[in-house]
Amino acid sequence: MQNIGFLNDIHSVGDNATRFKALVALRKLYPQSKIIFFGRRYFMDMFFYSEVIDEFVVIDELGGGRLSDFELDILLLAGHKYGDMISLAQTSKAKRIIAPAYLQTFFAKRVEVVFYNQFRPHREVFKALELVRKIDKKHFDENISKIDFKHLALKTLPQHQRYIDTLFKSFKAEQFKLIVGINAFANSAYKFVPQDYAYLAKNLAREFPQVFFVMMSYDGNLIRYKEFEEENIQIFIGDNELFHLIELTSRLDMLISPDTGNVHIADIFKVSILQTMKTNLRLKWGGGSWGNECQMLLLNNKWIKNYNKLKLGFNKLAKDMIARLLDKV
User: Fold this and answer.
1) Which of 46, 129, 216, 224 has fewest C-beta within 10 Å?
2) Would 3-152 and 158-328 be classified into the same CATH topology?
3) CATH fold of 3-152, please?
4) How far apart are the C-alpha atoms of 114 and 75, rounded to whole Å?
5) Residues ≥6 apart with Cβ < 8 Å to 8
């Protein structure tokens, strides 16, 4: 049995979600190994509930800021701040330290560098998978295609499921053929204004009365949706419980959203996705990494000049995608 450490200094929900496939691969390829995740406290339960790790260590609370207390055979560096992570990794007793090829990692002592394809789609997901492959390339290549990833998706607890059950019952969501989530909010300038997502929802709701639309927001958001007249549109206000959002997302048939964490959570549940995306980030952060359909409206630096034309094109993509999904029901 090996002790495998997974060091991940990432703060955001979506970026953590892009590491999930690599953790599933680790669990499946090395079922007898102990997997220790070093990460941020907020994401502890996200990985524990899903049964892909054996131990979670909060990196901000390490005694003396060192890894020397942990018996590690292998340490994978899967975060973003590689200078800081290398400094931390060098305090460990790991026999092998594996990291992606960056300037900081290339010249670091004891680090095995992994080269990855910069031009393949879903780069962040597969960059983390390449770290797992480096452990034993032959074992990885012979067995990765045998892994059924869907049985190790993100999991929630019964109380989270009951919360969404109650919410959907109040919405009468069970009477509709499809459930489509619409999120307008992201830490990105490459998105339409919230009012336009609301107009999109109203137009879609009228054209597809057999589809239920959930306008997704969050507690403390300064932008508030007014109640919709359409009976097949309701508003979901996310609270501080991440697992309510995860459980809600797991029940969607489609998500319409800018590039944000919601997309990467939806990926794991193989939800169909329509997203806006900055053109040069498509390969790095685009959805669809779990084999689900993902349509992207790519926006360049001058996209605002063609705002109305692009908005109409996005609305058409949404209608066409919903129509295709309905044909499959």
Assistant:
1) 224
2) yes
3) Rossmann fold (3.40.50)
4) 13
5) 16, 19, 37, 38, 39, 78, 79
Radius of gyration of the chain (CA): 21
Q: What is the pTM of this model?
A: 0.92
> What whole-number distance in Å separates Cα of residue 88 and Cα of residue 45?
23
Tokens 């999904």 locate to: 325
DSSP string of 194-243? HHHHHHHHHHHHHH-TTEEEEEEEETT-SS-PPPPSSTTEEEEEE-S-HH
Alpha-carbon distances of 3 from 53, 55, 159, rounded to whole Å: 11, 11, 33
User: What share of residues in the chain are helix, strand, coil (percent, to 5)?
Assistant: 45, 20, 35
Q: Is residue 152 pLDDT above 70, yes or no? A: no
pLDDT in tens, 155-177: 999 999 999 999 999 999 999 99
Residue type, 264: H
Domain chopping of the chain, boundaries: 3-152, 158-328
Mean pLDDT (whole number) for 72-94: 89
Angle of CA points 283, 106, 83, to nearest 5°: 80
The identity of residue 167, as a single letter, is: L
Tell me which residue has tokens 């499946």: 28
**% of the chain exceeding 90 in pLDDT:** 74
Decide if 244 contacts 163 (C-beta within 8 A). Answer: yes
Q: In this structure, are residues 73 and 95 in contact, taking their beta carbons and an 8 Å threshold?
A: yes
- CA angle at 150 for the pair 323 and 98, rounded to the nearest 5°: 120
Q: What is the helix (H) or strand (E) element at residue 276, kind and residue range?
A: strand 272-278
Cβ contact 153:50 at 8 Å: yes
Q: Token digits for 205?
A: 């709701």
Among residues 233, 239, 294, 238, the alpha carbon closest in space to that of 266 is found at 294
H or E element: which one contains 86? helix 82-89
Q: Class of 158-328 per CATH?
A: alpha beta
**What pLDDT is stored for residue 151 in this prediction?**
66
β-bridge mates for residue 238, sequence order: 218
